[in-house]
Amino acid sequence: MQIRSFEEYKNAYELSIKEPENFWAKIAENFVWRKKWDKVLDWNFTEPKINWFINGKLNITENCIDRHLPAKANDIAFYFEENEIGRPVKKITYQELHDEVCKLANVLRSFGVTKGDRVCIYLPMIPEAVYSLLACARIGAVHSVVFGGFSAQSIRDRINDSSCKVVLTSDGAYRGNKQIPMKATVDEALKDCPSVEKVLVFKRTGEKVNMQSNRDLEWDIEINKQRSECEPEIMDSEDPLFILYTSGSTGKPKGVVHSCGGYMVYCCYSFINVFQYEPEQIYWCTADVGWITGHSYITYGPLLAGASSVIFEGIPSYPDAGRFWNIVDKLKVNIFYTAPTAIRSLEAAGLDFVKPYNLSSLKVLGSVGEPINEEAWQWYHKNIGKEKCPIVDTWWQTETGGILISPLANITKTKPSFATLPLPGVQPVLVDDKGKLIEGNGVEGNLCIKFPWPSIIRTTYGDHERCRQTYFATYHNLYFTGDGCKRDEEGYYRITGRVDDVINVSGHRIGTAEVESAINEHADVVESAVVGYPHDIKGQGIYAYCIVPKTTKSQDELRKEILNCVNKIIGPIARPDKIQIVSGLPKTRSGKIMRRILRKVAEGETKNLGDVSTLLDPLVVEEIVKGRL
Ligand code: 7RM
Question: How many angstroms separate the CA atoms of 404 and 394, rounded?
Answer without folding.
Answer: 7
